[in-house]
Amino acid sequence: MTFDPSYKEQGLKSVGTRPLRPDGVDKVTGRARYGADFNMPGQLVGRVLRSPHAHARIVRIDTSQAEALKGVKAVVTAADLPDQSNGDAATFAVLDNCMARKKAMYDGHAVAAVAAIDASVAKAALKLIVVEYEVLPHVVDVDVAMAADAPVLDETVFTTGVEPAPKTPSNVANRSEFGHGDVEAGFAKADMIVERNYKTEQTHQGYIEPHACVANCNSDGTADLWVCTQGPFVYRQVCADLLGLDVSKLRVTSSEIGGGFGGKTHVWAEPVALALSRKAGRPVKLVMTREEVFRASGPTSATSIDVKIGAKKDGTITAAEATLRYTSGPYAGMWAELGAMTSFACYDLENVKTVGWEVVVNRPKVAAYRAPSAPMAAFAIESAVDELAHKIGMDAVDFRIKNAASDGSKSSYGPVYGPIGIGPTLEAAKSHPHMSAPLGENQGRGMACGFWFNFGGQTCVDLNIGADGTVTIAVGTVDVGGSRASLSLITAEELGIPYENVKAIVADTSSLGYNDMTDGSRGTFSSSMAAISAARNAIQVMRERAATMWDISVDDIIWEDGHAKAVGATHDNLAPLSVADIAAEAGNTGGPIAGHSELVADGAGVSFGTHICDVEVDPETGSTRVVRYTVIQDAGKAVHPDYVEGQYQGGAVQGIGWALNEEYVYGADGRLQNPGFLDYRIPVCSDLPMIDTQILEIPNPNHPYGVRGVGETSIVPPLAAVANAVSNAVDVRMFHIPVSPPRILAALNAQAKG
Amino acid sequence: MTSIAVSTTINGDDVEFLCNADETLLDVLRNRLGLMGAKEGCGTGDCGACSTIMDGRVVCSCLVLGAETQGREIETIEGMSEGQDLHPLQAKFIEHAALQCGICTPGFLMAAKALLAAHPDPSEEEIRFWLAGNLCRCTGYDKIVRAVQGAAAEMRGAKT
Amino acid sequence: MVEVTLWAGLRPLADHQERVMVEASTIRELLRKLQDRYPGLKVPFKNDVAVAINGTIYRDDWSQQISSDDEVFLLRRLAGG
Amino acid sequence: MRYESPATIENAVDLLANSDGHAFVLAGGTDLLVRMKGDDFNASLVVDIKSVDGMGQIEETADGFVIGAAVPCAALSEHAALVAAWPGVVEAANLIGSTQVQSRCTMSGNLCNASPAADSVPAMVAANAQARIIGPDGRRTIDVADVPTAPGQTSLAKGEIIEAILLPKPGARTGDAYLRFIPRTEMDIAVVGAAVNLTLDTDGTVQTARVVLGAVAPSVVVVDAAADALLGSKLSEDTLKSVEVACVAASNPIDDKRGTVEFRNQVAGVLGRRAAAIAFERAGGQS
């Protein structure tokens, strides 16, 4: 049956309500099993040896003493993970990041690993591995790495995207460019121009659950991986590629996941655990320590961004330009390109140009973090927009409304927009009571907008109807924040049965077709599309079964309110059949009843949000407290509003942490100084007020219920919203994120000195 | 390494176990007793995911040696509900959607239980500072604070 | 004929053109004809391409219909968090 | 590693005195267990002193308060007389770590860990607290200020244990206060700490004063110049400015991941001034 994903307005009974989540009891009783909560018979403990140097050639590794230690069952190095990338640079980078080959590229880069009978033997074995390093000059700062005299990390990196192609290698992997119009002509028409450099520091997703897995390679070529991941199917593919396993013989089971935010879309230690198990012939459990998580798993880019925006006195932006330099860790990435695409996406601009530079540095390989690359760009652009509005004497919201993109605007990254939500979120902000609430002493209010692409992608769902008419749906998108509740609601809605009659589970890779990861805000969007499609297929089966039971034509049966109903004058006296009625007879009418769906959920639609933030700054210490915060974002249709609010609040607070205190601090030796929650300061409960939310519902035309992804956009505006609020509180512009107390106090001192 | 024999009380039951001198209470609970509700988020007392209650005070079980629990009374998340009846805090956490990924939830519940035992009617500020040692990266804390307020109100009501 | 705009990174692989005219009614046909004409596009088309039709971005669904007055953009396939 | 939980203080001293030098005292364990996680930490013996009689008690005597070395900081705020006498000391001790850490951490441990940023130490030094030490050669009592000698190092000899912290009874019209700066509202190590303890004369002027800074030098800094500025005053704006200037001058910090030299110097002055004002008000002072 062809599936029609287009939006149809209808009265909804389940979607939009707030029932209890199906995994709630497991999670409040400690019974839910996360990555580290699984064990196998005969399991060994795996641990990884990591480079203490930011950049060093690996001259020699001697594992003989470790291998000789009683209780050690396997030691692996890069030699045990041979390069099978066939020249694919991205695959090679993943492999080299899991286990360094010729060079350690950052402090914390894995160089060897052991599997031993317990943790203390494993710890002792790590100390017995001898690694001889030749320490090389390192570079961690993005601007320094671009300089002509910077140490070149990789002699094979020649900047792509520039002409003529350079003849010497550098740390600049790629240049990308977007835009339209003529910015020089646009600036010539401007009455006022703001031109600034902005910097943001590297942050970490900060999920509370460290990476953890149990790997088991059997002698018959089959293998199992229990792991906390946002994408079991992707992990299966990547691990199979790196280890040379048959994809279908590797079964990956995603545990409950203790937060990911993009950081668990990439493999880290999982291929190493599999290699250890293959070599030891026993299952291996590998759990990263918190220090390893910070040193060796997914940080964001650190950035340096130049922005120039010009406007007429009436508030019309005449031209906008940005140059974005993003670190990608030691391997080429496309993070600056994402930043360049998203930079000016909120605005309708006649002349716009953005250039992105990808820069390799001796820091961990950059990983996706919630709307990756967009928050830094938004900080720079929304700070400059605010300053420009201030300079021409216009209200910050009015200025943005005047220049906001709308249906038919040509986006800064190329295509023309359809109906979009930036205007409505700005109008909602303008009329929100927060916007006109009085401010106290040393308080300031800031606002900012944010944009993010949402994704759909490959999706597969199985729906099975039990003999009593209750329903299970098996989905392949990992539930990171309550999606089993929303997918149960969608299924109940489509079948016309109570929410309580539906149980959603996340299936393993051997039980279901391929699914893309839970990333790009796609979990609920895409799996709900497949759930609706599967439910429609099951309804078709149930209509056929009802036809058999009644012995009438299936064409005379409609599905309405969870029942098969016979239509037409001749069938009036037939009482409608419920799902339970039909399921009870399934054995006699053709066997089990199921609905299946595999599809590509495309057309997710872009997403916009506007945030308002009040801060109070102690002008003597630079201490900043967020005292009020409001998130306004379009959800298309909020399936379970509690968890939509949760996404808005959680993203906003991650952004607040990034804005105020979170940053990687490197020493002169290139080693990370703060690999722990003590000095990598994510927001704590007492740092925050309640986070107010306003959900707008502008239906997505490409989803039957109008649903849009909601997960990521909320982290985009806060950096700028907080920085703008600080600037308004103490009347000094802040150009460097995080706006930590020392930076604020230094800025105030500089201003006082004139 | 010589093992140490420890007799203690966990969730009201007498429990005896052997552990090494350097094993933490968290190691013992998770690896020796199968009580995996306490989570290791950091191992250094910075995240609170391993919170348990020892002799009435909430502690990070990663900062307690297993050997130290001799003769003590330990409460873990596994003992929070009475049979099938959830503790009001547990029920309110689900009702208020106070968890997303849920990894921090057991620790929050143990800390909140200790809070309400000491302060049955806490202000929002008291709740926020008491729970500052429990990190949550998903929720922004809003719904957690509301759930604790809701449970406190219900428990005060239940007492009168 | 559909007018297709290429992202900057693709242009060196397509005779430095920003816009290309292609006779195609679906994304699949469009991509096939483009790489027939410019073989250098095969590599980026393998994993790295997404297609925007009138502003809606398609990353996987190559069966999407295109008509001559549609605005068609080739974009890099993006990563999410 | 061996774990011992002796029942008497003499046993504890014996165990430590006869150890191989890799022995550690375990009171609250909130610093020791973190160090134990390190791959390079090496201990042969841990002596848990919580089973020793009296270690967990706060005793109020005619002279003051005797706070056992194993009293968790959370218990300090539950002792009404102690809170009334030394609110600054108690609030400093209560700033250490989270609620969970408060259940375990001790002032003696905070002192022996000898971190320059220890929260309770500046407040104890301002309050003229003493440490009662027991060792193979018997007991001795020294000023708290003389315990830490450098970051991570103390003046305690092998086999010596702090048995109790002694706080005097404050005289009439005494007030103390402690303030620290951290980037967040909780869970951070102090970037700067400032403690002030002062007593007023019957005319409401400051008669005695101690001003102590933490986290701005290898050990706590007693700022005599700030104390001198307070003496005889009723905390006029000029006095407070002098206190601030004296604190900035006495501050001798380093640049590190938690703060810059410039920032610490400036904030040391601000906190010194603010703590003085709070202590003055607590003493009943009126400017």
UniProtKB/TrEMBL annotation, chain A:
<dbReference type="Pfam" id="PF01315">
    <property type="entry name" value="Ald_Xan_dh_C"/>
</dbReference>
<dbReference type="GO" id="GO:0016491">
    <property type="term" value="F:oxidoreductase activity"/>
</dbReference>
<feature type="compositionally biased region" description="Basic and acidic residues">
    <location>
        <begin position="1"/>
        <end position="11"/>
    </location>
</feature>
<dbReference type="InterPro" id="IPR046867">
    <property type="entry name" value="AldOxase/xan_DH_MoCoBD2"/>
</dbReference>
<dbReference type="InterPro" id="IPR016208">
    <property type="entry name" value="Ald_Oxase/xanthine_DH-like"/>
</dbReference>
<dbReference type="InterPro" id="IPR037165">
    <property type="entry name" value="AldOxase/xan_DH_Mopterin-bd_sf"/>
</dbReference>
<dbReference type="InterPro" id="IPR000674">
    <property type="entry name" value="Ald_Oxase/Xan_DH_a/b"/>
</dbReference>
<dbReference type="Pfam" id="PF20256">
    <property type="entry name" value="MoCoBD_2"/>
</dbReference>
<dbReference type="InterPro" id="IPR008274">
    <property type="entry name" value="AldOxase/xan_DH_MoCoBD1"/>
</dbReference>
<feature type="domain" description="Aldehyde oxidase/xanthine dehydrogenase a/b hammerhead">
    <location>
        <begin position="29"/>
        <end position="137"/>
    </location>
</feature>
<keyword id="KW-0500">Molybdenum</keyword>
<dbReference type="Pfam" id="PF02738">
    <property type="entry name" value="MoCoBD_1"/>
</dbReference>
From TrEMBL, chain B:
<dbReference type="InterPro" id="IPR006058">
    <property type="entry name" value="2Fe2S_fd_BS"/>
</dbReference>
<dbReference type="GO" id="GO:0051537">
    <property type="term" value="F:2 iron, 2 sulfur cluster binding"/>
</dbReference>
<keyword id="KW-0560">Oxidoreductase</keyword>
<keyword id="KW-0001">2Fe-2S</keyword>
<dbReference type="GO" id="GO:0046872">
    <property type="term" value="F:metal ion binding"/>
</dbReference>
<dbReference type="InterPro" id="IPR036884">
    <property type="entry name" value="2Fe-2S-bd_dom_sf"/>
</dbReference>
<dbReference type="Pfam" id="PF00111">
    <property type="entry name" value="Fer2"/>
</dbReference>
<dbReference type="InterPro" id="IPR001041">
    <property type="entry name" value="2Fe-2S_ferredoxin-type"/>
</dbReference>
<keyword id="KW-0408">Iron</keyword>
<dbReference type="GO" id="GO:0033727">
    <property type="term" value="F:aldehyde dehydrogenase (FAD-independent) activity"/>
</dbReference>
<dbReference type="InterPro" id="IPR036010">
    <property type="entry name" value="2Fe-2S_ferredoxin-like_sf"/>
</dbReference>
<dbReference type="InterPro" id="IPR012675">
    <property type="entry name" value="Beta-grasp_dom_sf"/>
</dbReference>
TrEMBL record, chain C:
<dbReference type="Pfam" id="PF02597">
    <property type="entry name" value="ThiS"/>
</dbReference>
<dbReference type="InterPro" id="IPR016155">
    <property type="entry name" value="Mopterin_synth/thiamin_S_b"/>
</dbReference>
<dbReference type="InterPro" id="IPR012675">
    <property type="entry name" value="Beta-grasp_dom_sf"/>
</dbReference>
<dbReference type="InterPro" id="IPR003749">
    <property type="entry name" value="ThiS/MoaD-like"/>
</dbReference>
<protein>
    <submittedName>
        <fullName>ThiS family protein</fullName>
    </submittedName>
</protein>
From TrEMBL, chain D:
<dbReference type="InterPro" id="IPR016169">
    <property type="entry name" value="FAD-bd_PCMH_sub2"/>
</dbReference>
<keyword id="KW-0285">Flavoprotein</keyword>
<dbReference type="InterPro" id="IPR016167">
    <property type="entry name" value="FAD-bd_PCMH_sub1"/>
</dbReference>
<dbReference type="InterPro" id="IPR036683">
    <property type="entry name" value="CO_DH_flav_C_dom_sf"/>
</dbReference>
<keyword id="KW-0560">Oxidoreductase</keyword>
<dbReference type="Pfam" id="PF00941">
    <property type="entry name" value="FAD_binding_5"/>
</dbReference>
<dbReference type="GO" id="GO:0071949">
    <property type="term" value="F:FAD binding"/>
</dbReference>
<protein>
    <submittedName>
        <fullName>Carbon monoxide dehydrogenase medium chain</fullName>
        <ecNumber>1.2.7.4</ecNumber>
    </submittedName>
</protein>
<dbReference type="InterPro" id="IPR016166">
    <property type="entry name" value="FAD-bd_PCMH"/>
</dbReference>
<dbReference type="InterPro" id="IPR005107">
    <property type="entry name" value="CO_DH_flav_C"/>
</dbReference>
<dbReference type="InterPro" id="IPR002346">
    <property type="entry name" value="Mopterin_DH_FAD-bd"/>
</dbReference>
<dbReference type="GO" id="GO:0043885">
    <property type="term" value="F:anaerobic carbon-monoxide dehydrogenase activity"/>
</dbReference>
